Each structure stands twice: as C-alpha cells, then as structure tokens.
Amino acid sequence: MAHTPAERARFKKDITTLLRDAVHVELTTIPLYLYSLCSIIGAPRVKNLDPDVMDGLRAKAKIAVVVRQEMLHLALAGNILTSIDSGPRLYLKSAIPTYGEDETILHSKIPMKLEPCKKDNLECFLRIEAPYIEPPSLSAEDESVNVGTSKQAFRAPLQYKTEQLPDFNSIGEFYTTLERMILDCGSYVDFIDKDLQYTSQEFFGDLMTQVVDDKTAHDAIKTIIDQGEGSVGVEDAHYQMFLELYQKRTDWGCYPVPSSPHAEDFKKTPFVYQLALASNASYCYLLITLEKTWKVADPVHRRALITNTHAIMVDVLKPVADILVQQPQTPTKPNLNGAPPFEFYPTSQGDDPKDIDKAATELHAAIIARLKEAIKNASTEIQRAQIKPLESIIFSAERIPWPKST
Description:
Residues 19-247 form the Iminophenyl-pyruvate dimer synthase domain. Pfam families: Ferritin-like. It is a single chain. The chain is mostly helical and 406 residues long. It has 2 domains: 5-247, Ferritin; 263-398, Ferritin (Up-down Bundle), CATH 1.20.1260. It has helices at 5-39, 51-84, 119-129, 140-143, 152-155, 171-184, 214-228, 238-247, 270-293, 299-324, 356-376, 381-384, 387-398; strands at 328-329, 333-337. The protein has a two-stranded antiparallel sheet with strand order 1-2. The relative contact order is 0.13.
C-alpha cells in the first residue's frame, strides 16, 4: 500500500531524529574511551619494560581497537543519515558532548565522566556496552569479577533520553528500534547522495558501507550493533573486551589525571593550559574535517580531507594528549597531571558556524599557535623536555592545512 505524503514526511522526520541521536551516541563514547586509553602508563619505545607497563600497553591496544570501531560506527551512522537527509553537524557547541559528575548524556543512570582507566571507569564502560536482548548470563569466573555492588549492575535498566524521543531502557534498545525502522524505510524514503558518503576505499576498507537502499542501510546498522552490542562471549564485541580489561584492571598503572577536566582548570600552569587548548582545537579540527567530508563530492577534495583526518588523530591529537597526561599541574596541583578536555574550541564564527571553511582555517591556526605558546611557557625541567616533541607536532600540524575546494 502506498504511503501518503504526510506518512512519508513523519517517518522521515522520526528516523532522521534517531539517526542524529545515533551520531551523537557514537560521538559521546569516543572521548570517554580515548581519555581512559591515554591515562594508562605505557612506554612503547623502551626496551625491557616492567611487566606492569607491558600490561598497560596491552590494555591501551585493546581500548584503541574499541576507539577505532567507534570511529567506524560514527562514519556508518553519518552515511545512513546522509543518504536520507543531510550529513551530521559535528562542530557546533550544542553538538559536542560535555562530561562531568552531573552529565548523563546517554543513560540517566550512567554518569558520563572522563576518568583514568580504573575500576569505576571500566564499570561505566561495561554498562554502556551491555547487550540489550537478554541480561548477560555470567560464568562463575565472570561472577567473581563483582562489577559494582552486585551482579545487578549488569542488569539494571539504563535510561537513554533525548528531548525529542521517548526514553529507551538501553543503548541496545535504542539501536534495536532504529534497526526496525531501517528495515521498513525503503517504502518511506528516497535514498540520496551516495557520492557524499565515506567509501570502503576512503575509510575502514570492507567494513565501510555506502548506503543506497534499505538493504545497505541495514548492513551499516548491523555492523554497529554487532560490534558494539555483541553478546557476552563474542570476542570482538566491546562488552567482552571491556570485561576482559575489568578482570585485569590491577595489572597496570595510570597517570594521576583529573576527572572530566576543563582547559580553564589548568590556567595557573601556563604550559599545561596551552597544551589543553591545543588539544581542544585539534579535537574540533578533527570534527569539522569529518563534517565537511559529508558535504563534498569532488574526489580530490575528499582525498585531502580524509588524509587530514588520519594525520590529525595520529600526528597531533594523540601525541599532545600523551604529553599532557605526563605534566604535573605545578605549582597549584602538583599531585594531579594535565589531560585532554575534549571541549568546544570557539572561533570567530561563533557557537554554530555557518562558514565552516573559515572556522576550520582558524582552528588549524589555533593548533599551531597554542603549541608555540606552550613551548614559550615551558619553565620546568619536565616541561622543557617536551620542546623537541612539540616542535615535531607543530611540523606535523603545519602539513595539514584546511583543503580548499578544487
């Protein structure tokens, strides 16, 4: 039976809202996991490592796999959204997640906090990634892990809230609802803009799906569900990986990083403050690069954006974070180190930039300027030891200017 224009419009509005929330869900988890990852003490270039450091490196590698998959999920959700409506907005103040004791962005029962990779942090990750269809059936070994105060920590209903949608009991329920809508969407929506979507040649190889119909839309959402919401015992599911880390959580050490920091917290330690601002600018430069890629069809322009995406993550954002977490907040808080805040970095374009090209150009300049200011403010021996690494990061940043349209 043919649907009326009103029915089609309502369906499109509802599924678009869900898809934008899916993008926000994935965007929220990436800083959570990155912060935990960079808090772990590790020294990959040192030979004859202490066993605790080796365990830390293994933990970092496992979390890095999850982060990579969350980036894939973000790209897949963005592809589906682009195929039905328009690409995600990532660089605007209202879209960038915030973290702290009172923040419950995904589930009202789970505080969304940036924390070191310890017991409470891993418990949070387990609750985020817990499967939805059935409560986990724990083995005797898993029972001994004692997450939270009892095994009910796994079974407690989780609340996902948005202003536009009814409450969901879990992120798994949210994705199940979205999957059902996608299975029905072929008769309601027209699929568009294949040339604006990430391809397997550009991002994540065969795991990437371009969405051209309801079947490919379902393929994309199934990848997200299977990797993120996999059943207990599925090796590559995020839940299973975090459960394994939880069981080994005493095997590594963490830097004394603060909980959910803001760049302004470091203002009395100028070196750390400038690095935190550089980190924020780098994070936002990454987001605006991802956002722009869903707006560009020209292959040459897309290639430049995607090349920048990788370089921002590997050559700028990660090494700045690695330096930050090793820097004491002297003299005000010598027992706490710096850390990447993952905050909105403003430009002259305001909180909701209409000209993202101008905003991106300013963000790129801000990365370099803040790193240079950090070098100028290096006053302690620990800080001065980072001058050469920072000069190397500046060199890398200078090589990723904002690509111009061809």
